[in-house]
Design goal:
It is an enzyme of class 2 (transferase). By secondary structure, the protein is α+β, with helices and mostly antiparallel strands. It has 12 helices and 13 strands. The two termini are 33 Å apart. The structure holds 2-deoxy-2-fluoro-alpha-D-galactopyranose.
Length: 409
Amino acid sequence: MSGGPETDPDRYPAAVRRAADGFRAVHGGDPEGVWAAPGRANLIGEHTDYNDGSVMPFALPHTTVVAAARRDDGVLRLHSADTSGGTVRLAPGELAPGTGGWAAYPAGVVWALREAGLLPGTGEGGGAGGDGGAGADLYVTSDVPTGAGLSSSAALEVATALALNDLYGLGLPAERIAALCRRAENDYVGVPCGIMDQMASACCTAGHVLHLDTRDLSHRQVPFDLPAAGLRLLVVDTRVKHALADGEYARRRAGCETAARALGVRALRDVPPGELAAALAALPDPALRPLVRHVVTEDERVREAAALLDTGAIRAVGPVLTAGHASLRDDYAVSCPELDLVVETANAAGALGARMTGGGFGGSAVVLVEAAGAEEIGRAVTDAFAAAGHRAPRLFGAVPSAGARRLDG
Ligand code: GAF
């Protein structure tokens, strides 16, 4: 298992130095500040966020770091230390939804802020940006694994939004930042995600999971102190690339919306678990039944996990995770052989429970284990991948970490 960010106490000062040095080298001059936003893993509550349901993510120690400074000509200059292709320069008129690449995420955030009337573009005058409009120079560096279902996109969006919020004195609360970032991802990047990832990145706190109602964004921090309980949570990145934009995610989302309409409810979260059997029988299209069954039972699993964590019974959450995986595999059909192998192997080797996390179709799994058994269970998973001829997975122990914040000053 890799040491990784979890075990490096000097990582944030070092990240500030690296980002500020990178900024100077690329943009000239000093950044005005350095901000960070984490990736996330989701403990339970999968594919419920676009059904107005509840979710329970926590922040990873892995972060996207943005060094930034204002520009008064409305221009955006975006540079990522982690991608080739140099600096992307976008004049205000060039911010157009659907333009791809990594820069679409920060550009989409600026677009969303302008669309909301919070940042003036060129010629719009008024306020913080001066005559030429509010622009920015950004230098981005990240250790959030990409394509691993761990929300590298949300981390980039939220770090960018937080930087602009502070630089232009917008005073936006974290929930509003998350909503604007989701708008950027939905309407600029073109991925029809829910709001879980952006809320997780913006609102999580160290040592807690975020119990979030995605309908009204009300949320609370639920203690999830793994070390104190003698537990560890392993994240296993199968390295099977997931792509939310490939249509499967959107198809399931559309299926849920069709089912809600057929059942006469605003969203599937409004189907009470006690009325699930009747709701399934009432659906005209039998293909919608497994979708509805997953969403309704998953929302119930979130409630169950929350009740257990409230009494400090972290170990008892294990079987709830495994039941969630079975539902995602069998009903929602978003797992894959590699994710199933992680869950089966880890549980057979003594894990308390395991499940895929995030959108699925590849990506990562979370495995709840006794701290003393972590190495052995990790090894069992790695060995099983080798025996099955799969690419070696990446494993790390994740401690619930801080949400988005300014790193310097
Ligand atoms: C992805 C999406 F971005 C989230 O909004 C959520 O729907 C998740 O898949 C599934 O729970 O991470």
